[in-house]
């Protein structure tokens, strides 16, 4: 599904990402773990095109995407959830999800004037699909509420609904449980599992909570100082000495 | 009666300008100080084509509008690579550049002498020259602008612009080519401002560069700041308030030598007060932060 080969990125004198190669299999949940500053979010930014790597190759569905503008990479079917909650705050939850759809003829300014029928038909289909995804994440009753008025956890759920719309195949989730009220973490995890099992998505997750990793991840990469130190099944990686040292100092 | 109609015509012109800026500021979140430049270029294209080529006013309109849209495209492509304040500075320099060209390109624009004797518009052999006729013409133009923006605001295009305003990075992550959205907004906004310019030139029958200065751009921003942005009603109420204020001063028996200064003070104070107390404007949906 996604393949990174020998990616390098320097910021000034700092090697943020140092010769990193990662492989992600379709229909699985893979996790990137490691201490703060290990380069995990930088890897996400490189995959989604917000940061250009200095060297290396990225293949998404066997096509190279390194160097493409971020909106094109997103358009190819790659979804991204940010570490800090991001919503279109002044827009309603429904509008937030409607925006996720690609190829909307109404987003051409001429559409409203010259092919209103086509725009209306697309909009109607988009609305019914968006409502379905709001229901999927449990926000059906919030459709007409401005996203600013949701709780932090609800905004995370809204981000999931947005990612689900439009059939994105690969989802990058940057700490989806961080800052979420503990009662809601279970709900978020169930949702991630549901996304993979029922909707057949591929998920890459950055996570600090080890019990979350053990519960949902199929495969784990451990990063430190911009390098991949070890990888494998969650149990084995979490048992590794270097991982234990990084997380507990033992 | 003509006095009131004259004020209403000026309100119509500034309402169109306010709406055109609203698409940029209230929807795209782009602070532009170049609205008067497009207003002026539209006025000059229409006036010069009527005088030099003897064209009918209504046939000059597509040239004025498309000319300004093309100009907006040329300006937008480099400027929209800049973010926030730097974009505003780019529009400011474009505004200054246009004024300088209008002022100094004497063979074409006659520079500071301006262009006198702009003929009245003729529609199917019927000459529009009375004030009430211009009022009706302005009403048609205003209705056209309101129609265009209403359609755009309620379309998925308007929604995407608002989304980009709220969080550009998120919009990019959903596959939106945000630069393209901003460029089209700038181009549409420039084209509609040209419409106001053509109407102004035909109505006053004399134009010179001093009508299209940076002050004028700031004046249009004032309309938006006072009335509010992000919807239709904000710029409409803003245009009424801002254009009626000087007329009220007229009845307060303030000497002519002082009136323009007092007007500037009032406008300045209004901007400061609105920004401080009600940043979304009187009827706006969106606040500048």
Strand order, main sheet of chain A: write it out.
6-7-8-3-9-10
Overall shape of chain A: globular
Helical fraction of chain B: over 70%
How many DSSP H or I helices of chain A?
10
What would a concise description of this structure say?
Chain A is globular and about 60 Å long. Chain A has ten helices and ten strands.
Explain what you see.
The complex is a heterodimer of chains A (250) and B (289). With 250 residues, chain A is α/β, with parallel strands linked by helices. Chain A is built from 10 helices and 10 strands. In chain A, the strands form 2 sheets. Chain A has a 6-stranded mixed beta sheet with strand order 6-7-8-3-9-10, sandwiched between helices. In chain A, a hairpin with a 2-residue loop joins strand 4 (55-60) and strand 5 (63-64). In chain B, strand 1 (122-123) and strand 2 (126-127) form a beta hairpin. By secondary structure, chain B is mostly helical. Helices cover 73% and strands 1% of the residues of chain B. In chain B, strands 1-2 form a two-stranded antiparallel ribbon. In chain B, helix 10 crosses helix 11 (233-250) and helix 11 runs antiparallel to helix 12. Chain B starts with a helix and ends in a 12-residue tail after the last helix. Chain B has one domain. At the A-B interface, helix 2, helix 3 and helix 4 of A face helix 6, helix 7, helix 8 and helix 9 of B.
Give a quick set of tags describing it.
heterodimer; A: alpha/beta; six-stranded mixed beta sheet; B: 289 residues; two-stranded antiparallel sheet; 12 helices; 73% helix
Topology, please?
The complex is a heterodimer of chains A (250) and B (289).
Chain A (H helix, E strand, L loop, with lengths): L1 E10 L2 E11 L4 E5 L6 H8 L7 E6 L2 E2 L5 H6 L2 E4 L11 H6 L12 H4 L1 H21 L15 H13 L5 E5 L7 H16 L4 E5 L3 H7 L2 E6 L2 E6 L1 H6 L1 H8 L2
Parallel strand pairs in A: 3-8, 3-9, 6-7, 7-8
Antiparallel strand pairs in A: 1-2, 1-4, 4-5, 9-10
Chain B lengths: L1 H26 L7 H19 L3 H23 L5 H20 L1 H4 L12 E2 L2 E2 L3 H23 L2 H11 L1 H6 L4 H27 L9 H14 L5 H18 L8 H19 L12
Antiparallel strand pairs in B: 1-2
